[in-house]
Design brief:
The structure holds three protein chains of three kinds.
Chain A lengths: L1 H21 L3 H21 L3 H26 L11 H24 L15 H10 L2 H22 L12
Helix pairs in contact in A: 1-2, 2-3
Chain B lengths: L17 H5 L1 H15 L23 E3 L14 H5 L5 E7 L12 E9 L8 H5 L5 E3 L14 E2 L1 H4 L15 H9 L1
Antiparallel strand pairs in B: 1-4, 2-3, 3-5
Chain C lengths: L2 H35 L15 H11 L10 H17 L7 E6 L2 E5 L7 H11 L1 H10 L3 H32 L4 H7 L6 H4 L1 H14 L11 H4 L9 H26 L15 H27 L7 H40 L1
Antiparallel strand pairs in C: 1-2
The chains are: A mainly alpha, B alpha+beta, C mainly alpha.
Chain lengths: ~170, ~180, ~350
């Protein structure tokens, strides 16, 4: 039962991911990407990683992709405004993508990927995950939060008005 | 500039105090005002079942009166049409034939008598101009309609029905009649 | 099939029906409350006191012309109202509508799914609830719709943060993300609203914003954007959008009751000497009374306050609510950490 669900979900994940790349309209691409995120969340749920499932939906599908969609809708990109890439850029893109594909394929073939079913553990539950994060991995966890803090400070610095610029919206 | 009334208030752009900026006291005050209104009696009059009380001389839909024997009083003199400031009234007259004495009181009568209710301003001048006490305004409210043509009221809708007489005695008081004939 | 499975399916059907009926009659209640506040009578023609008005409205919605604009994205245009309705209905699955019942030899909760990540699940569905509006607004290919969609998305992202931080204070003091546990922790009049009044206020304001209700109905403000994201919608597609809004309101009221007002708990529930099943059923009634009150409160506020301006909305969200929520979180954390020391200090002082 769960095995079939896994294959269906995987198939849909790959399908929506391909559709995301193939779609001409950027908004459609984003919508397919959101669908992909949902499929991936479903995979997390199959692995009994409830926390990752919900956080993936809240953070990626619920916040980041909303912002993406927001920007794309405001830009209103369509066929007429699509920038024409030169032949050279296209060729560079194909080569770069092909190299990545070869690397991934090579890693998959040479690497030791076990096909046996991983045992379903309770590590993905909120309680266990929290305990692990705050005991075994407390230093990396805090360091990553410092990273986020610095990113936030950087964003504020970029967005801040410089001296001399007048305030646009008065209160 | 000197103000014409003493009701004008100088606009001030003063900084709001902290209490005002928290905004919640004002919100709660507003909520209680609306809550008070929830328990007030509504001002609605449920129209078809209830009607607003109107004056005896309310100027609503017109009626062409018949006399006591059921004959039409109108003699198509055209004074109402002349008096009408909105030019809403038109009529065609004809002579009464032998044997029609029961239908028309005078020797001349209106074959067509039309009031365009879209033009009519319900001023009641036709009522006071009429020398034969034939046209009156009633307390009935003019109904709405879908077509412009349906607002042109002919004799079929204006002349009072014999079995459904309309009482105009409240508006045709002695004072009204004497004043009308003194003018 | 086991008895438990059948019972769960019955509960799902009942809750789904109740959600839809509650949303339907919310429209009626909204019109009545609006009328009352404005000294009018409201709908009173369809049936006694107009109680069949929602049915008449629904019938009208079905028979209206279903128009799809020529230059719209047809499939997304059709998908959007369904998505809005789906996300609105899904949240009802984890609300604990009542305590445990023993029927047919089975003991079960009046809840569709008692999952450990209940609050995160709510946050998840709240955060993807905006897609129905965004896709609908963009697919309409109308600038007013797009404005509405863009406003809705930025508003929802901004208020989600304050909402999450407000809930976190509750989670910290209860020590669980499970809605059933949160309700059980409030037994005996220990309602969270008495311990976390600031969190309640923040959550309430954010709930208004997340439901796109006045005074934060920027996404569909008639005076500026015609109808906002549903300008181009007609017939039952429009009905779905409006319906989803009322379902959201119903679910929000339920969540507020669960998180802050003890859910199905009521005072002296164990002192009256009633049987367990009787307590549960009275509890369900009490829960719905609480929900009804909050639905009324939503309407009451809508017909009292004028709409915020857009920059005021953003300022309130980012500069007032989020700092307050963080302060509340810190106070809660400090209290939980040093509760013992503080109490000892106070007793030593006196």
């Amino acid at each position: 039962m769960l095995g079939y669900l896994f294959y269906i979900l995987s198939g849909l994940t790959i399908l929506t991911a391909i559709m995301m790349i193939a779609a001409r309209n950027p908004v459609h691409s984003v919508l397919y990407l959101i669908a992909t995120f949902f499929m991936v969340s479903g995979q997390y749920l199959l692995m009994n990683a409830q926390f990752l499932f919900v956080v993936n939906i809240i953070v990626y599908a619920g916040a980041i992709m909303v912002l993406f969609l927001f920007v794309l809708m405001l830009l209103n990109l369509n066929k007429e405004t699509e920038p024409q890439k030169s032949m050279k850029t296209k060729l560079a893109g194909v080569i770069a993508g092909g190299l990545l594909l070869i690397t991934l394929l090579g890693a998959l073939i040479k690497g030791n990927v076990s096909s046996e079913n991983l045992p379903i553990t309770d590590i993905g539950l909120v309680k266990n995950l929290g305990r692990v994060l705050f005991t075994d991995f407390v230093v990396p966890f805090e360091i990553s939060s410092v990273l986020f803090l610095s990113a936030m400070v950087g964003a504020i610095l970029v967005g801040k008005r410089h001296n001399g610029e007048t305030e646009v919206i008065s209160e | 500039m000197k103000s014409l009334t003493n009701r004008s208030i100088e606009v001030s752009n003063k900084k709001m105090t902290l209490m005002e900026r928290i905004y919640l006291p004002a919100v709660i005050g507003g909520l209680f005002i609306t809550l008070k209104h929830l328990f007030m009696k509504g001002a609605t009059i449920k129209y078809p079942e209830q009607t607003r009380p109107v004056s005896n001389v309310y100027r609503g839909k017109h009626v062409l009166k018949r006399d006591d024997k059921g004959a039409e009083r109108c003699t198509a003199c055209g004074l109402c049409a002349v008096a009408c400031p909105a030019e809403a009234i038109t009529m065609t007259s004809a002579e009464r034939q032998k044997g029609e004495e029961g239908l028309y009181r005078e020797e001349k009568y209106a074959t067509v008598y039309e009031i365009n209710m879209l033009r009519c301003i319900f001023c009641g001048l036709c009522e006071s101009a009429c020398p034969k006490e034939a046209i009156f305004l009633t307390t009935e409210i003019l109904p709405a309609n879908f077509e412009r043509e349906d607002f042109i009221y002919g004799k079929d809708r204006l002349v009072e029905q014999i079995d459904k007489r309309i009482d105009v005695s409240k508006r045709q008081t002695m004072e009204v009649v004497t004043q009308k004939f003194n003018d | 099939m086991s008895t438990l499975l059948i019972i769960k399916i019955v509960i799902i059907l009942i809750i789904f029906t109740i959600t839809l009926v509650a949303a339907m009659y919310s429209t009626y209640m909204e019109r009545k409350v609006a009328a009352g506040i404005q000294d009018r009578i409201g709908p009173d023609r369809a049936g006694p006191w107009g109680i069949f008005q929602p049915l008449a409205d629904g019938g009208k919605m079905f028979f209206k012309e279903d128009f799809i604009p020529g230059k719209s994205e047809k499939w997304l245009f059709i998908l959007a109202p369904g998505l809005a309705m789906f996300t609105a209905c899904m949240t009802g699955a984890i609300i604990p509508w009542g305590g445990t019942v023993t029927l047919f030899g089975e003991t079960f909760n009046l809840q569709i799914a008692n999952i450990d990540i209940g609050i995160l699940y709510i946050m998840g569905f709240v955060s993807i609830g905006v897609y129905g509006i965004m896709i609908g607004g963009w697919a309409s290919n109308n600038k007013y719709s797009l404005y509405g969609a863009v406003r809705a998305s930025s508003q929802m992202i901004s208020y989600e943060l304050a909402m999450g931080l407000a809930i976190l204070a509750i989670v910290m003091s209860t020590g669980s993300l499970n809605l059933g546990d949160i309700v059980e922790a409030q037994k005996g009049g220990q309602w969270n609203v008495f311990y976390q009044p600031l969190a309640f206020l923040l959550f309430l304001v954010c709930a208004f914003a997340e439901c796109n209700r006045a005074p934060f109905d920027m996404a569909e403000c008639e005076s500026e954007l015609i109808g906002g994201y549903h300008t181009e919608y007609s017939s039952m597609k429009l009905g779905f959008f409006l319906f989803a809004e009322y379902i959201n309101m119903f679910i929000s009221s339920a969540v507020i009751s669960v998180l802050f007002f003890g859910g199905y708990n009521f005072p002296f529930m164990h002192d009256l000497g009633l049987s367990a099943n009787a307590i549960t059923f009275i509890g369900v009634g009490v829960f719905f009374a609480k929900i009804l009150f909050f639905i009324f409160f939503f309407m009451w506020v809508r017909w009292t306050l004028p709409r915020f301006r857009y920059d005021q909305l953003m300022q309130l969200g980012w500069k007032a609510l989020i700092p307050l929520a963080v302060i509340n979180l810190m106070i809660t954390g400090g209290w939980l950490m040093f509760k013992g020391d503080l109490l000892a200090m106070i007793t030593k002082m006196f």
